[in-house]
From TrEMBL:
Protein name, UniProt field: HTH araC/xylS-type domain-containing protein
PANTHER family per UniProt: HTH-TYPE TRANSCRIPTIONAL ACTIVATOR RHAS-RELATED, TRANSCRIPTIONAL REGULATORY PROTEIN
UniProt entry tagged with the keyword Transcription regulation: yes
Gene Ontology terms, MF aspect: DNA-binding transcription factor activity; sequence-specific DNA binding
Coiled-coil ranges (or none): none
Swiss-Prot/TrEMBL keywords: DNA-binding, Transcription, Transcription regulation
Positions of the HTH araC/xylS-type domain: 189-287
InterPro entries the record matches: AraC_XylS_family_regulators, Homeodomain-like_sf, HTH_AraC, HTH_AraC-typ_CS, Tscrpt_reg_AraC-type_HTH
């Protein structure tokens, strides 16, 4: 089994009204709880793995606190790994819920089929609340049925769990294939201006994409279609170009130029410069002055 359960929960005035029902799959642990809480009941929960909870009752009388401000407990919540969740009951309540405890590494691989790995990690680091579970509640109830009476292959229960996960997470819509799409001249000017404003220091892919209002994955592809280079290659060539200008047009030392352009040190600039120009900055300066 890939999933290793590491969950801690402390409650007061909450009690199960039926034995917990659970089922272990390769990458997830499924648990169905039926619980009663009195007015003033509290819960404190934290897990080393992300988890998804679907509630089959109106939970608006329960206050939930995580890293955000206090809010009403939604019908479906996704809690990232390591994030604490505290709940407080304002009135007596009997309720049932499905918990899906998820192996984080598997979840990253699962989401990476549709988005970049970096984006998958970002999605799993963000809590999500869903008040409307109309479309996913039937799947959640079907999964409870498979916990109680596993009549089908594990693949069926696992597929229901992944459908619920993708239905609750804030993944966004799929982007069209960029094909031969390119940045416009105006967009390229914006990117170049943003780079120049930074004094030659490297921009992150996110910063470059935000400059023209595109997602990172789409920007990366259309930028390459436009320039024939990756954003990293393009920036590196431009930084080397700025280094050449400073070597000829200023008295700054190679170390000072490296610092100004955001290279880690003089050696880093020297290695990069030699790779692109064919000689060290010092020898190139002597030959071109």
């Amino acid at each position: 089994m890939s999933y290793r359960h590491d969950f801690t929960g402390h409650t007061t005035n909450l009690r199960p009204i039926a034995p917990v029902e659970w089922r272990q799959l390769e990458h997830v642990l499924l648990a169905h709880w039926q619980t009663a809480g009195s007015s003033g009941a509290t819960g404190h929960y934290v897990s080393a793995n992300p988890r998804l909870s679907i509630f089959f009752n109106d939970m608006s009388s329960v206050s939930a606190i995580s890293e955000a401000a206090p809010r009403k407990l939604a019908r479906a919540i996704f809690v990232p790994a390591g994030m604490t969740l505290d709940t407080s009951f304002s009135k007596p309540l009997t309720f049932a819920h499905l918990d899906i405890h998820i192996d984080h590494a598997w979840a990253v691989r699962f989401l990476s089929a549709g988005v970049t790995r970096q984006r998958a990690v970002e999605i799993l680091d963000r809590p999500v609340d869903r008040s409307d579970i109309t479309e996913i509640e039937p799947m959640a109830r079907a999964l409870v049925g498979e916990i109680r009476d596993p009549r089908r292959h594990d693949l069926f229960a696992s597929s229901l769990a992944t459908c619920l996960l993708s239905g609750v997470l804030d993944i966004g819509t799929a982007e069209p294939d960029p094909g031969n799409a390119r940045l416009t001249a105006a967009q390229m000017r914006k990117v170049a201006r943003r780079f120049e404003t930074g004094g030659g220091r490297r921009l992150s892919l996110s910063e470059m994409a935000q400059t023209v209002g595109l997602s990172e994955s789409w920007f990366s592809q259309v930028f390459r279609n436009t320039t024939g280079k990756t954003p990293h290659q393009w920036q590196l060539e431009n930084r080397v170009g700025q280094a050449r200008d400073l070597l000829v047009g200023s008295d700054l030392s190679v170390a000072d130029i490296a610092d100004r352009l955001g290279f880690s040190d003089q050696s880093h600039l020297t290695r990069t410069f030699r790779r692109h120009v064919g000689e060290t900055p010092a020898s190139w300066r002597r030959r071109n002055r």
